Amino acid sequence: MSAPGISLEVRGLRKSWGPINVLKGVDFDIHAGGFLTLLGPSGCGKSTALKLISGLESVTAGQILLNGQDVTSKAASDRNIGMVFQNYALFPHMSVAENITYGLKVRKVAKSTQQASLKRVAELMALSPLLDRKPAQLSGGQQQRVALARVLVSERPIVLMDEPLSNLDAKLRVEIRSEIRALNKQLGITVLYVTHDQSEALSMSDTVVLMNKGQVAQIGAPKDLYDRPANTFAASFIGTPPMNLLAAKDVVLPDWVASRVTGEQADLLIGVRPEKMHILGDNDDFSATCTIASVEYEGSVFLVHLRTHSGAAFILAHHGPDAPIPGDEIVVGWKNEEAHLFSSGTGLRISSNSK
Ligand SMILES: Nc1ncnc2c1ncn2[C@@H]1O[C@H](COP(=O)(O)OP(=O)(O)OP(=O)(O)O)[C@@H](O)[C@H]1O
């Protein structure tokens, strides 16, 4: 059970099916015992990357290294990788204990070792009272924990997980993700995780690889992606609701930005997170005059849907106490340190004096 993790390096990974280029050259590394998540919208190639790494599909080009060894042309069975999928197939006629130890039994691991591993993982995953039950007698979350326990006792030094929580309700997802994270840290197993759910990615990972259309849009720690999106794709994917992106013409700019808005620089986009702006105070550097289109009450916050005079839509997260009134004209503002500048032409972040 004390499998020390191994490192993974992915170099120039490409995959085409006929004329369709699904992965267009993807690079990333996970250090031994690290937790890296591939995050991105449906169809961006996350599951394909996982299949190539596990050996279930062959690469079109690129290299996969485990602990520095090139395994690109090795069979899946020779890669010593554990996998957990969204559809975790448990054997219905076997008990929880038999399901968990099945792989050890097939590998003819000594019975006493099997029982010791089972005891430890059952305690870790809070499954000890359920070991004699059949899968049909478990809730969805308990079944998912059995699937995780099964891969954990298999002592693989690296585990790939493809949306393993997507069949569960919101509360269980939150509970199990902290268990997965704890297991990664306690056991030192390297984890490569796939999800389209940003809160899962941001809360669990050491590193997030944000993917868009078969390419890497940004790699970084969760906080880097939130604090310094590298491009408009990252800005408008990360955050709930995501970052507002306003044309320079819709914003009253401070001098240091206004001086850039000349000639070709007129393609500037001003990014600001809904929770980082407010109804205008005295010390704001940027401001925008707008009309309140509608207000959504979210419990801790009002999401105020705004329109600029030119008709651009954006959102302010307002912390009350009073609800803003639809139809009112207001001025919203934010400070230099909350402003993100992007080129609308390339979509790339523009470094500035302020950020
Ligand atoms: N065997 C295949 N043959 C042809 N095209 C495929 C095959 N498998 C996947 N694709 C295509 O590759 C693209 C990426 O699929 P993939 O499953 O990797 O995306 P994903 O990011 O994991 O999406 P999701 O979050 O919806 O699972 C999709 O357009 C898909 O239709």
Number of helices: 9
Largest sheet data:
6 strands, mixed
Low-confidence stretches: none
Question: Mean of the pLDDT scores?
Answer: 90
Explained architecture:
The chain has helices at residues 46-54, 96-106, 111-124, 140-153, 170-187, 198-204, 222-227, 232-237, 255-258; strands at 8-17, 20-30, 35-39, 61-66, 69-70, 81-85, 158-162, 190-195, 207-212, 215-220, 244-247, 268-272, 278-279, 286-297, 302-308, 313-318, 329-334, 340-343. The longest helix is centred in the middle third of the chain and has 18 residues, at 170-187. It is built from nine helices and 18 strands. By secondary structure, the protein is an alpha+beta fold. The strands form four sheets. Strands 6-7-8-3-9-10 form a six-stranded mixed beta sheet, with helices on both faces. The protein has a five-stranded antiparallel beta sheet with strand order 13-17-14-15-16, with no helix packed on it. It has a four-stranded antiparallel beta sheet with strand order 2-1-4-5, covered by helices on one side. Strand 4 and strand 5 (69-70) form a beta hairpin. The relative contact order is 0.12. The mean pLDDT is 90. Helix 2 packs across helix 3 and helix 2 runs parallel beside helix 4 (140-153). The two termini are 46 Å apart. Bound molecules: adenosine-5'-triphosphate. The site of adenosine-5'-triphosphate has 12 residues, from strand 2 and helix 1. Pfam families: ABC_tran, TOBE_2. Residues 8-238 form the ABC transporter domain. This is ABC transporter ATP-binding protein. GO terms for molecular function: ATP binding. InterPro entries: AAA+_ATPase, ABC_transporter-like_ATP-bd, ABC_transporter-like_CS, ABC_transpr_MalK/UgpC-like, Mo/tungstate-bd_C_term_dom, NA-bd_OB-fold, P-loop_NTPase, Transp-assoc_OB_typ2.
